[in-house]
Design brief:
- There is one protein chain.
- The chain has 426 residues and is α+β, with helices and mostly antiparallel strands.
- It has six helices and 15 strands.
- The chain has three domains: 16-146, Immunoglobulin-like (Sandwich), CATH 2.60.40.3250; 163-319, Collagenase (Catalytic Domain) (3-Layer(aba) Sandwich), CATH 3.40.390; 365-425, no CATH class.
- Strand 6 (125-134) and strand 7 (137-146) form a beta hairpin.
- It binds zinc ion.
Length: 426
């Protein structure tokens, strides 16, 4: 080997050992879950610690531990207690944040379950949970420390149900691991659930960029058992006893399907290593929900737009994509503050457009871009998105994040999903 090459070789080995050492210096192969409550109303938010749990598998990243992608309404930081060095960071969004912009939040204080997960530490750590104030401004909500040897940290399985591997081509430390959890399937419907989970995987892989990165995606089906079949529809006074307590009519919106029981969802997810949670609801009724780094929930048997909803909701929860559609009177239309730049990669208020797709715009693009037939096929800055018809702009006329008739993600959304896959697997 020539000398420069040899030096390069040594340098690469050095870099590799630096990165890999960082994980094993601080963390074990297990996961640490923190359960807490986010509480408050329209204008105030507090966080209260519920419990700390050791879980058997860590499915997340092992490199770039102190980087994040500046997504989500919240983030958490894990510091080594002795040195205050940042050893892990991640971001997420919450159902609580969406509730804060509903009329009810002006009238009453409420509390929502929330969980975060990071690799189980070897030594004492400090955890800080922060709320986003602006595109690059955060507020600390809670800070606490703990020792990994604390006897009150639960270390046993919370649930025990059959798990089937739907596809697994690579070890979890190099993969996007998706935990698919059964909701509204009775014990007799287990075979149907495994078939539905396989179809979910098939649907996901009909879309780019999931097809391109198929060899980096592992999918597991976790057969949670429900007493009743299906999920609750409170708008019809129809309540079911299902494993995760999911229901339509979230915030009085007919097709918004969510569950408030986040700790139970996480108990089931902990049976596998995971980066993302997909709850498959045994119902034909159209609907779903997806929140960044929280969960996706969608109906298994809705004929209308089954593939489209799968991919749309997963776009929210996996890559933090915003809805590009808008109505005049949506229940969530107070969600965006037009004085701030939203963190979602596929919408802008133009406050910090340089951080979005501005550099990729064709030369001479008018801002805002008029919706002419010619412009419909081009990248631009089209007014309307994020539930508002004015003041928020989207990059393309149509996209999987706007309508069910769109065939694909627009190029800005496609790149955001691809960036997320690369961030978690490289
Ligand atoms: Zn898009």
């Amino acid at each position: 080997m020539q000398k420069p090459l040899f030096i390069l070789f040594l340098f690469l080995i050095f870099c590799f050992s630096l990165f890999s050492q960082q994980y094993t210096d601080y963390f074990t192969n297990k996961a640490c879950r923190i359960d807490f409550q986010l509480s408050g109303n329209t204008t105030s938010t507090n966080a209260y610690l519920s419990k700390i749990i050791q879980e058997p598998f860590w499915g997340g990243r092992r490199l770039r531990l102190s980087d994040d992608m500046n997504l989500g309404e919240y983030r958490f930081l894990v510091l080594d207690s002795l040195t205050d060095k940042l050893i892990y960071i991640d971001d997420f969004s919450t159902l609580y944040f969406e509730w804060q912009s509903t009329p009810e939040a002006a009238l009453v204080n409420k509390s929502f379950e929330q969980s975060i997960q990071f690799p189980y530490p070897q030594k004492s750590v400090k955890v800080i949970i922060e709320r986003r104030l602006d595109f690059d401004k955060w507020e600390k909500l809670i800070q606490f420390g703990f020792s990994p040897d604390d006897k009150l940290i639960r270390k046993t399985k919370m649930v025990d149900v059959p798990v089937k591997t739907i596809c697994k081509t690579v070890s979890p430390d190099k993969a996007i691991d998706i935990a698919v959890i059964a909701e509204g399937y009775t014990v007799k419907q287990r075979a149907k659930f495994f078939k539905d989970a396989q179809r979910l995987a098939d649907n996901l892989f009909t879309h780019e960029p999931f097809l391109k990165y198929k060899s980096r995606i592992n999918i597991y089906a976790i057969a949670a058992i429900s007493v009743d079949t299906g999920v609750s529809k409170p708008q019809n006074a129809n309540w079911r006893n299902s494993a995760l307590g999911s229901h339509y009519y979230t915030f009085y919106s007919d097709r918004y399907l969510t569950t408030p029981n986040v700790f139970t969802v996480r108990d089931y997810a902990s049976l596998v290593p995971y980066d993302a949670i997909y709850i498959l609801a045994n119902t034909k009724t159209y609907g779903g929900g997806g929140i960044y780094n929280f969960y996706t929930l969608a109906s298994a048997d809705s004929k209308r737009a089954q593939t489209e909803v799968t991919v749309h909701e997963f776009g929210h929860s996996f890559a933090g994509l915003a809805d590009e559609y808008f109505y005049d009177n949506d229940a969530l239309n107070g969600m965006y503050d037009l004085k701030n730049e939203p963190w979602e990669p596929n919408i802008t208020t133009l406050v910090k457009f340089g951080a979005k797709w501005k550099k990729d715009l064709p030369e001479g693009t008018a801002i805002p871009t008029p919706l002419t037939d010619e412009n419909k096929a081009k990248m631009g800055v089209f007014e309307g998105g994020g539930y508002l018809s004015k003041g928020i702009y989207r990059p393309y006329f149509d996209c999987r994040m706007r309508t069910n008739t769109a065939k694909v993600f627009c190029p800005v959304c496609l790149k955001a999903v691809e960036d997320r896959i690369l961030f978690l697997t490289e």
